[in-house]
Amino acid sequence: MAQVRRTQAERREATRTAILDATIYVLVKRGYAGLTTEAIVRKAGVTRGAHAHYFTSKPDLLVQALDRLSQQMRAEVQRTLGKTRIDYPELLDRMWQVHRGPLFTASLELHVAARTDRELGAHLHRFDHELTEQLRTLAAQYLPDLVRKPAFSRVVTTALAAMRGVAVLGFTAPPETVDRTWQHVRAELVRAGESAFDG
Question: Which domains does the chain possess?
Answer without folding.
Answer: 1-56 (1.10.10.60), 64-198 (1.10.357)
